[in-house]
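Exercise 7. Predict the joint structure of the components listed below.
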Amino acid sequence: MKKYTDTGKKDTRSGFGAGLTELGKTHPDVVALCADLTGSLKMDEFKANHPERFFQVGIAEANMMGIAAGMTIGGKIPFTGTFANFSTGRVYDQIRQSIAYSHKNVKICASHAGVTLGEDGATHQILEDIGLMKMLPGMTVINTCDFNQTKAATLAIADHHGPVYLRFGRPKVANFTPEDQQFEIGKAVHLQEGSDVTLVATGHLVWEALLAAESLNEQGISAEVINIHTIKPLDNKAILDSVKKTGCVVTAEEHNYLGGLGESVARVLSQNYPSPQEFVATNDTFGESGTPAQLMEKYGLNADAIVKAAHKVIARK
Amino acid sequence: MPDINYLNELVIQVRRDILRQVHKVNSGHPGGSLGCTEFFVALFQVLMDRNEGFDMDGKGEDVFFLSNGHISPVYYSVLARSGYFPVDELNTFRLINSRLQGHPTTHEGLPGVRIASGSLGQGLSVSVGAAQTKKLNNDPHLVYTLCGDGELQEGQNWEAIMYAAGNKVDNLIVTVDYNGQQIDGSTDTVLPLGNLKGKFEAFGWDVLEIPNGNDIEAIIKTMQEAKSRTGKGKPVVVLMHTVMGNGVDFMMHTHAWHGKAPNDEQLEIGLAQNPETLGDY
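Solution:
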């Protein structure tokens, strides 16, 4: 097994902030908009370096999405920043008409996704955003797993023409992606080779999948681990190649099982290579207040849950 | 500036285009289109500084956004007759495989359109963004927007109105089609807009009014005044009092023709009131 080292826990939102800071220096057309959450989104450094390219819109997310769409006309590359809940559900029609249907080059950058937002509770913990965004024609949907990958993704989406939803989070999590790893939109990252079961994970669940693979290995089960950072367009080939080898799959995400990565994988398999699949995801429920670790445990979103799902899916082969 | 006789002839021809477009497909929105015909002709023929051809980025020229996208028939007619696409293409309005969708969109690549609109309340925010990009690009040109009055019931507008004043977006002229009508009735009966002038002023905008928004010379005069007020730290709004259905007597002063097409007989009456001037498509 490959050994992955946590180089120190960091929040993925800080990876976004670091990426945005770098883009400020390298991409003069990048502009940033924020709806009163500059500190939470780690946009302070970009704001300090480029006050003329930073736009504080106040608590008015619908207006922010419209302004961002308008700013593309004349060649700017707007990055909007707010929580995932306010980046998607609150402004769905604005994104749909002014950004997606109008094919505007807006990067919707969303922090505090999922239950790991923690104590603020369900009003702020969106678990439906991947589904909302992947259903929009032409929208690229990315959910990164750690600081380094989030930074790399932030840089990569600036050079991709078209609307993008970039999802990341609040808690400090293991940072294991090599700092120099290029981010290729739509290209899965193979983390472990295995033969008994495929673990397909996105976002914060990728590290948990690596931990699960170690546990499974100790039990004599060989798990392949794939990091799907881009949910749309999905790397169908990577998934199919792996499942053809292992014969079953566990998908893992910090999102409702309805509309998330798991459903996208199920569609690919049902059309090409029907196989047993288990879903590690929230079960059509809202979240609640608690620490991130408590919530991941309660809602079955950790390595233990992935191990259990792996046993279950292998038994179904 | 084209002479006034030509502008008046174009207004009549555009009215014919509007009636014929919606009649052919028995759908679309003639009322608001007819009410804004003089405005569109003035905007595209006189007021805007436009480049030849169409470029999405609109650098080095004035740009326009239609927020109340349902009045697409007047928008399409004036775009075509201002050279953005062949006038004959008006024949395809709302038909399958057309670039002239029911509501305007960039999706089919229709020259002249820079944003999709139809779901109301979004165009003002888009215009503010485009205006701010013009400033970043050191482009001294202006951004024009047309909003419906009923559309101002959408809350997003007021976010944009607050933002534009707070950020001194003063290269923007918003015109409100103030016809007092919406689908379910008059704006006063559906949801009163109250003192619109006072509201814009309270938000920090420079407000002008056109008492007769179907008088093209009055439109040109007030819009020129609006242009002279740009660059002074405040966004500018023009409350343009129009008559819905203007130019077709049975369609005037009522919301009944907001989204309804004339039948064959009604079309003939409407066209007879607006005899062909520059040639039908």
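Discussion. The domain at 189-315 of chain A is CATH 3.40.50.920 (Rossmann fold).
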